[in-house]
Design a protein that fits this description.
The structure holds two protein chains of two kinds. Chain A is an all-alpha fold. Chain A is about 80% helix and about 0% strand. Chain A is globular. The two termini of chain A are about 45 Å apart. The N terminus of chain A is likely disordered. Chain B is mostly helical. Chain B has two domains: about 35 residues; about 230 residues, Orthogonal Bundle (MetI-like fold), CATH 1.10.3720.10. Chain B has 13 helices and no strands. The model of chain B has no long low-confidence stretch (mean pLDDT about 90). The chains are: A mainly alpha, B mainly alpha. Chains A and B meet through helix 1, helix 3, helix 5, helix 7 and helix 8 of A and helix 2, helix 4, helix 5, helix 6 and helix 7 of B.
Chain lengths: ~325, ~280
């Protein structure tokens, strides 16, 4: 497939192309599809080579590790698996993980909606700075996220003595774990909502306002139905990260078994004690959560695409 | 709240600006900005020589070399294969394509600790992949590279996909009618258009890898001077109650991350400009 052959092939239409730019190649494509299609795509062997490379790369780095989690988890039998995930320490780790996600999720949803409302619906000075600041936690290492809370609330930190005098514990206790989780999952909901709400504009809300709706009514009846799928997707992502966070939580948790161990920390302890099957058993629960997250994401994205298409058609 | 209204460039009939902005700033301040400032303020309590010594000790320098080097290598590998994956997903039809497309996000959704133990098991000397390789991967710097490749995989694919989808067929047809071979069309027409997005994806993967901890510590072996990443060194210092030493290294990493963040913002602006948006 050479370019000259392709351009010489559908000679009648393409030869006059300079006279009628734009229109000519398009008619050419429908009249003589073979030649033009070969001009804008690769030969079959290149195509299948590229598909093969891509699939091999993804299999090696994604599929095989995922499969390994489940295979290792059931290596010593279902009995060992069930014992590992119903062990009291594992159950308390699961409870703590659910608690940390359960607290940080609503907080970040509230923040995400508020931030998206002012950024997407209003034009104000310093907006781009605010956007960059919201992204900040993405670029901070989880370990450093934990460290900064130790510097603020740890015994040697700003509020360390005050907290000790009032018998309050944040670092090496549950509140620290929640704070670290909130920091790590901070931008997710906002980042999902902002681009969508910016694309949707403000006309519908303004119409509702003119018709006499108050702020809450506008949000409930106009904005929320428009953003519900993106919001759901943001919540799903946020939840996956909250339950799986390791580095930040590891710094602030203190690793007290049965008290301040989340599921990822429990996995680490089991692994370091060479209880590999048990470690992978607990890991398989989180891997299952990741798979559910991907499936939900797939469904939500399809919904969003369909709704955007409907909106575009009606406009 | 007249003050916040003064920030508005344009009057709006919509309510809730004061409340939403006020809450956003308050929450941002308490959760992110004030705790982050603690790291910088802590280093101000150190003298300059003490700071310099803390961040340039041989063991720390070795950890920078490993962290930055492995992150760069992993991001580079992801740029090459991410381009192939994005191209294949956008341009071709093949069985299982939608499943593969959904699977690309796995590193975003899979907890890092789970990825860490899975990769370690695979690449150890009796693991599925490890026993087929003539050299050691687990517990060597190569293991760090493998883990960081996994972590950074979705970034290049996901930044390239929308740009490739937006490419107008007409320009490729124009190139072909002007006599360009398919390879020439790719290198001279398509590649320049997608370069900013490719660089953005590379930078995002690199930035993510710099701070990564969970997936690396299992597979790295964590030998000082050899396979010890910088985030682990921060934790080690913390466990020795060397808060200043830990914070000093953290500030170096934070500054590197912020510089990258600004660079990524600039790259994204370039991507939009190149796409004519």
């Amino acid at each position: 497939m050479t370019g000259t052959a392709a351009s010489a092939g559908p000679a009648p239409t393409v030869a006059v192309a300079p006279g009628a730019p734009g229109a000519a190649p398009r008619t050419g494509a429908s009249v003589a599809p073979r030649h033009l299609r070969s001009a804008v795509t690769e030969p079959a062997w290149v195509k299948w080579l590229l598909v093969g490379i891509a699939l091999a790369f993804l299999a090696l780095f994604l599929f095989v590790p995922l499969a390994a989690v489940f295979v290792e988890a059931f290596k010593k039998g279902v009995g060992v698996y069930l014992a590992a995930v119903t062990d009291p320490d594992a159950l308390s780790a699961i409870r703590l993980t659910l608690l940390a996600a359960g607290i940080s999720l609503p907080l970040n949803v509230l923040f995400g909606v508020a931030a998206a409302w002012c950024i997407a619906k209003f034009d104000f000075h310093g907006k781009s700075v605010l956007l960059t600041l919201i992204d900040l936690p993405f670029s901070v290492s989880p370990v450093i996220a934990g460290l900064i809370y130790v510097l603020v609330f740890g015994l040697q930190g700003w509020f360390g003595e005050w907290l000790r005098d009032h018998d309050l514990k944040i670092i090496f206790a549950v509140p620290g774990i929640v704070l670290a989780t909130v920091f790590i999952t901070f931008p997710f909901v906002a980042r999902e909502l902002i681009p969508l709400m910016q694309a949707q504009g403000t006309e519908q809300e303004e119409a509702a306002r003119v018709l006499g709706a108050n702020g809450w009514q506008i949000f409930r009846r106009v904005t929320l139905p428009n953003i519900k799928w993106a919001l759901l997707y943001g919540v799903i992502l946020c939840n996956a990260r909250a339950m799986g966070e390791f580095g930040a939580v590891s710094v602030v948790s203190g690793h007290i078994r049965g008290q301040t161990n989340t599921m990822p920390l429990h996995i680490e302890i089991l692994y370091n004690e060479y209880q590999f099957a048990a470690s992978f058993a607990v890991a398989s629960l989180l891997a299952g959560l990741a798979l559910v997250t991907l499936v939900l994401k797939f469904i939500v994205e399809r919904r969003v695409r369909r709704e955007l298409a409907v909106q575009e058609r009606s406009e | 709240m007249v003050f916040s209204r003064a920030l508005l460039k344009r009057h709006s009939v919509l309510p809730g600006f004061d409340l939403a902005l006020g809450f956003t700033l308050l929450y941002l301040g308490f959760v992110v900005l004030i705790p982050l400032s603690a790291a910088f303020l802590k280093t101000f309590t150190m003298t300059w020589p003490a700071f310099w010594e803390a961040v340039t000790a041989p063991r720390v320098l070795a950890s920078y070399r490993l962290t930055f080097g492995a992150s760069f290598g992993a991001a580079l590998l992801n740029a090459v294969f991410g381009l192939v994956v994005a191209w294949v997903l956008v341009r071709y039809e093949f069985p299982g394509k939608r499943f593969v497309d959904a699977l690309v996000d796995l590193p975003f959704a899979l907890p890092t600790a789970v990825a860490g133990i899975a990769l370690t098991a695979l690449y150890s000397h009796n693991g599925w992949i490890g026993q087929a390789l003539p050299f050691k991967v687990s517990f060597t710097p190569l293991g760090v590279f493998v883990a960081l490749t996994f972590i950074g995989l979705p970034f290049v694919v996901r930044t390239l996909q929308p740009v490739l989808e937006d490419l107008h067929k007409e320009i490729e047809e124009a190139a072909a009618t002007l006599g360009a071979s398919r390879l020439q069309t790719f290198t001279k027409v398509i590649f320049p258009i997608i370069t900013p997005a490719l660089l953005t994806g590379f930078a995002l993967a690199f930035a993510r890898a710099l701070g990564e901890y969970g997936s690396v510590i299992f597979i790295a072996g964590n030998m000082p001077m050899v396979s010890e990443i910088t985030p682990l060194l921060i934790i080690t210092k913390l466990e020795q109650y060397d808060y200043r030493g830990a914070t000093a290294i953290a500030v170096v990493m934070l500054v590197a991350a912020f510089v990258l963040l600004l660079g990524i913002n600039a790259l994204q602006a370039w991507t939009r400009a190149r796409q004519g948006k």
